[in-house]
């Protein structure tokens, strides 16, 4: 059985003290978790080293919210894969819709970052999603599959399963977002899985971890996790508060009891 992934990105939130108290509260719950639940946390860059020192990397994986595809050089304001590794990071989030919409991230730069992450042994967590207009025009699947195929361009066959994909509808994310229904989420997840089958074959496609993100909360997490092609959830607001995150872990743990 695949693991159930429960992750959060803090986006541009928290400070050193609130990061420390979140880690302390979550650490105990993580220790009690079934090993088949895989927690991860993605703080802002300045707190990565602090988090690496406080959390047990075996139990909860540490991620970064972005990275440059270059190893080093004259790239002011950027952070390289080697620097992330130095800070104890194992996952790098790539292509979140906030970065695509506000900071010029494109399908092409997402692909360069995926290749760079894999080259350095980091797990790329690639976010893909349809806009509200694309949903209205009924081209959600086309838009998302296109993003997936470009993100994975030139990824060696044996590395595809090292990539995590997160379907995050732009219309579902953040304040004012409407969570996807379990049917809407599963439809797109199935389409992503089918595209992976087409490109890499069934066995490889089945091994790729597909997460759902966008207004996941303590009410809808359970039914989302019940979907065949949803291997976990990637959560913002609900998980910023340690209690919310711990509750998500226990929902995931309860799935494994049956
Ligand atoms: P949200 O954020 O859970 O606050 O909607 C999700 C995300 O952006 O990944």
UniProtKB/TrEMBL annotation:
Localization of this protein: Cytoplasm
GO cellular component, one term: cytosol
Pfam families, per database record: TIM (PF00121)
Positions with a binding annotation for substrate: 174, 215
Record pathway: Carbohydrate biosynthesis; gluconeogenesis; Carbohydrate degradation; glycolysis; D-glyceraldehyde 3-phosphate from glycerone phosphate: step 1/1; Carbohydrate metabolism; erythritol degradation
InterPro entries cross-referenced by the UniProt entry: Aldolase_TIM, TIM_sf, TrioseP_Isoase_bac/euk, Triosephosphate_isomerase, Triosephosphate_isomerase_AS
Principal localisation: cytoplasm
Record: active site: 96 (electrophile), 168 (proton acceptor)
Reactions accelerated catalytically: D-glyceraldehyde 3-phosphate = dihydroxyacetone phosphate
Signal peptide range in chain numbering: none
An example molecular function term from Gene Ontology annotations: triose-phosphate isomerase activity
Record keywords, A-Z: Cytoplasm, Gluconeogenesis, Glycolysis, Isomerase
GO biological process: gluconeogenesis; glyceraldehyde-3-phosphate biosynthetic process; glycerol catabolic process; glycolytic process
Domain of life: Bacteria
Gene3D superfamilies named in the record: Aldolase class I
Its EC number(s): 5.3.1.1
Assembly behavior: Homodimer.
Record function comment: Involved in the gluconeogenesis. Catalyzes stereospecifically the conversion of dihydroxyacetone phosphate (DHAP) to D-glyceraldehyde-3-phosphate (G3P).
Family assignment from sequence similarity: Belongs to the triosephosphate isomerase family.
Alphabetized NCBIfam families for the sequence: PRK00042.2-1, tim
Protein name: Triosephosphate isomerase
């Amino acid at each position: 059985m695949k693991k159930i992934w429960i992750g959060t990105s803090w986006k541009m939130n928290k400070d050193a003290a609130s990061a420390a108290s979140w880690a302390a509260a979550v650490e105990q719950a993580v220790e009690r978790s079934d090993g088949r639940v895989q927690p991860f946390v993605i703080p802002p860059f300045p707190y990565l080293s602090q988090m690496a020192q406080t959390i047990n990397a075996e139990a909860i994986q540490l991620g970064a919210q972005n990275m440059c595809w270059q190893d080093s050089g004259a790239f002011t304001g950027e952070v390289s894969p080697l620097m992330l590794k130095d800070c104890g990071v194992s996952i790098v989030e790539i292509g979140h819709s906030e970065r695509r919409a506000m900071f010029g991230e494109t399908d092409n730069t997402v692909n360069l970052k995926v290749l760079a992450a894999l080259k350095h042994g980091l797990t790329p967590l690639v976010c893909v999603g349809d806009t509200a207009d694309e949903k209205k025009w009924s081209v959600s699947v086309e838009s998302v599959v296109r993003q997936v195929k470009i993100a994975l361009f030139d990824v060696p066959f044996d590395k595809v399963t090292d990539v995590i994909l997160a379907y995050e509808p732009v219309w579902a994310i953040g304040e004012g977002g409407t969570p996807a229904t379990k049917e809407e989420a599963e439809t797109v997840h199935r389409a992503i899985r089918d595209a992976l089958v087409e490109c890499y074959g069934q066995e490889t496609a089945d091994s790729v971890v597909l997460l759902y993100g966008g207004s996941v909360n303590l009410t809808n997490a359970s039914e989302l996790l019940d979907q065949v092609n949803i291997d976990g959830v990637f959560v913002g607001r609900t998980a910023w508060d340690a209690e919310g995150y711990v509750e998500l872990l226990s929902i995931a743990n309860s799935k494994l009891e049956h």
